[in-house]
Design goal:
Layout: H1 12-23, H2 26-38, H3 45-70, H4 86-96, H5 116-133, H6 137-147, H7 150-163, H8 168-176, H9 186-199, H10 206-212, H11 220-253, H12 265-277, H13 282-313, H14 325-341, H15 349-360, H16 363-394, H17 401-423, E1 429-430, E2 434-435, H18 438-452, H19 454-465, H20 470-477, H21 484-489, H22 493-497
Antiparallel strand pairs: 1-2
Helix pairs in contact: 1-6, 1-10, 1-11, 1-13, 2-9, 2-11, 3-9, 3-10, 3-11, 3-16, 3-17, 4-13, 4-16, 4-18, 4-19, 5-13, 5-14, 6-13, 7-11, 7-13, 8-11, 10-13, 11-12, 12-13, 13-14, 15-18, 16-17, 16-18
Keywords: Membrane, Metal-binding, Sodium, Symport, Transmembrane, Transmembrane helix, Transport
Binding site for Na(+): 21, 23-24, 28, 199, 231, 296, 299-300
Family: Belongs to the sodium:neurotransmitter symporter (SNF) (TC 2.A.22) family.
């Protein structure tokens, strides 16, 4: 079987901008500011920053470096330990189930009719996604220069305008003023940890796919820290924009800020329209803001499709597609997503949207995925072994903190938050008023379990189907399947151990064991 030569990014900045476009999304604009408001203002930053280093950066780096080392997307990347390829299907189902919606009906049992205006908008978006993705990362990497940077321009404009409005200072003070009594509440820490996994787009497989298009000796360790700083910095910056405008709204309406601050979509689609309607030249501000929201969703959407398609294409040799395999795969993926999304543009579409959002790509499923990623790499493949592999790529060994996180800290954090969510599970509601019917809960749990059960079911199935003793089965099924670039450039272990004392800051000491091969 002959596989086509793997693309690489034209420039490394293409990779950085694609990751920014994917990870920095709508949640940074509306969810993080609300969580700060809800959980004690500035005091929320303490657990938030702590979880960045305990979970966010380690797994972010793990997914990017794993994709870069294996030169594969979210499916074939787990050739590093084939027994755990159930992780691939978990990733694909989570990514595919992420919802990308109004005239609300009475409930889930009365979804009403399709909204044709929204159908046309939805079709236009998926057509744009198709033409952004169909030619691969060399074209996608150029588009994100606009889609990933324009939102920052709008946020800066809105901040400059927002801080000049009456009441803006009170809104910002409400945002950052710490309420120290909140620091002892478990929910504050759980919200901080969940937000990290949500906003960093961990566990969706797209970061692995993006990393697979890097040069083999790209310094992904440095990239992980840069991208984490951009992601969290954007969230914090967006909070100033949001609450300066909320302060203005509260001042204009003569109410407390807590009365105008809403969570989730309400903050973006209800509070902001009210705010811009009170501004001078309101249509201009409204157009800028909603165009920004479109781009935030659009680049996350087409990079997510890129990750899904990359995983699928890695499974099949190019000879089956007569040179059009990517175009066909992208078209099928976009068509399926469009069909699923039709359920969200009915009059009851918001109920369907929240059902997908709450269960299919929820905090629990992402935490479950991240936990198993750490376990497989650190305990099945070997944390020290993977650190050696990274040294082969980038020329130096990352700080041992990464190994400690993958082996002990991050899995404990993931499982701790996962169990907290499970033990404190509350039935899904809409706007704290509408309670979903029992069969809606069943559908939701089916969505969640369809991805979460892939890992244990696949593991048991493969072990049961193999021959030999349990030890022989385990050793056979966890033996990595190497690519040609690994076998050709594999360095002796003694060369790798000599890199242990090197640091990224000493360029003259940096040794590149592998050259770029794809």
């Amino acid at each position: 079987e002959v596989y086509p030569e793997r693309e690489t990014w034209t420039r490394q900045m293409d990779f950085i901008m694609s990751c920014v476009g994917f990870a920095v999304g709508l949640g940074n604009v509306w969810r993080f500011p609300y969580l700060c408001y809800k959980n004690g203002g500035g005091v929320f930053l303490i657990p938030y920053v702590l979880f960045i280093f305990l979970g966010g950066i380690p797994i972010f780096f793990l997914e990017i470096s794993l994709g870069q080392f294996m030169k594969a997307g979210s499916i074939n990347v787990w050739n590093i330990a084939p027994l755990f390829k159930g992780l691939t299907f978990n990733l694909m189902l989570i990514c595919f189930g992420t919802p990308q919606v109004l005239n609300i009906s009475e409930g889930l049992d009365d979804v009403g009719t399709l909204n044709w205006e929204l159908i046309l908008c939805l079709l236009a978006v998926w057509v744009m996604v198709y033409f952004c993705v169909w030619k691969g990362v060399k074209s996608t990497g150029k588009i994100v220069y606009f889609t990933a940077t324009f939102p920052y321009v709008v946020l800066i404009i809105l901040l400059v305008r927002g801080v000049t409005l009456p009441g803006a200072y009170d809104g910002i003070l409400y945002y950052v003023k710490p309420d120290w009594s909140k620091l002892g509440e478990p929910q504050v820490w759980i919200d901080a940890g969940t937000q990290i996994f949500f906003s960093y787009a961990i566990g969706l497989g797209a970061l692995t796919a993006l990393g697979s298009y890097n040069r083999f000796n790209n310094d992904c360790y440095k990239d992980a820290f840069v991208l984490a700083l951009i992601n969290s910095g954007t969230s914090f910056f967006a909070g100033f924009v949001v609450f300066s405008i909320l302060g203005f709204m509260a001042s204009e309406q003569g109410v407390d800020i807590s009365k105008v601050a809403e969570s989730g979509p309400g903050l973006a689609f209800i509070a902001y329209p009210k705010a811009v309607s009170l501004m001078p030249v309101a249509p201009v501000w409204a157009a800028l803001f909603f165009f920004m929201l479109l781009l935030l969703g659009l680049d996350s959407q087409f990079v997510g499709v890129e990750g899904f398609v990359t995983g699928i294409l890695d499974l099949f040799p190019g000879k089956y597609y007569m040179g059009y395999r990517r175009e066909i795969a992208v078209a099928i993926c976009c068509l399926l997503c469009f069909t699923i999304d039709l359920s969200m543009v009915t009059q009851g579409g918001m109920y369907v949207f929240q059902l997908f959002d709450y269960y299919s790509a929820s905090g629990m499923t992402l935490l479950w995925q991240a936990f198993w990623e750490c376990v497989v790499v650190a305990w099945v493949y070997g944390a020290d072994r993977f650190m050696d592999d990274i040294a082969r790529m980038i020329g130096y060994r990352p700080f041992p903190w990464m190994k400690w996180c993958w082996s002990f800290i991050t899995p404990c954090v993931c499982m701790g938050i996962f169990l907290f969510h499970l033990l404190n599970y509350k039935p899904l509601t809409y706007n704290n008023v509408y309670v979903y019917p029992w069969w809606g809960e069943v559908i939701g749990w089916c969505l969640a379990l369809s991805s979460m059960l892939c890992i244990p079911v696949s593991l048991v199935y493969k072990l049961a189907g193999a021959k030999g003793t349990f030890r022989e089965r385990w050793e056979h099924l966890t033996k990595p399947v190497w690519g040609a670039h690994h076998l050709e450039y594999m360095a002796p272990d003694t060369d790798i151990k000599s890199l242990a004392s090197l640091s990224p800051g000493t360029e003259e000491n940096k040794v590149i064991i592998f050259e770029s091969v794809m």
